[in-house]
Amino acid sequence: MKPSFDILIVGIGGQGTVLASNVLGEACIIENRTVRSAETHGMAQRGGSVESHIRIDGKHGSLIVPGTADLLVAFDLLEALRYRHYLPAGGRLIVNRNLVVPTSVYQQALDVPDDESILAALAGLDVACIDAAALAREAGNILSQNIVMLGAASADIPLRPETLEEAVRRCVPKKTVEVNTAAFRLGREKGAGTTP
Amino acid sequence: MAIRYLLGNEGIAHACLEANIDFASGYPGTPSSEVIDVLRVQKERPFTVEWSTNEKVALENALGAAWCGQRALCTMKHVGLNVAADPLMTSAYTGVTGGFVVLSADDPFAHSSQNEQDTRRYAHFARLPCLDPASVQEAHDMIRDAFALSEEFGLPVIFRPTTRICHSKGDVDTGAVGTEHQTAVFHRDPKQYVVIPAHTRVLHKNLNGKQQALKKRLVELGYNRHTVRGSTAVVASGVAAAYVQEVIGGDVSLAIVGAYPIDEEWLREFVDRHERVLVVEELDPVVEEAVRQVATRTEVFGKMDSTVPYEGEFNPAIVAAALEKAGMTPTTTFPAAAPVQGVPPRPPILCAGCMHRPTFYAMKKVFRDGIFPSDIGCYTLGLQLGAVDTTICMGASITVGSGIARSGEERPVVCTIGDSTFLHTGIPGLLNAVYNGADMVVVILDNRITAMTGHQPNPNTGVTATGAESTPISLDAICRACGVSWVETVDPYDLPVLLETFRRAKERRGVRVIISKQPCVITARKSGVRRKAYAVDPERCTGCGVCRSFGCPAIAFTGENATITELCAGCGVCADICPSGAIGMEGRR
Question: Where do the annotations place [4Fe-4S] cluster 2 binding (chain B) (predicted)?
Answer without folding.
Answer: 552, 568, 571, 574
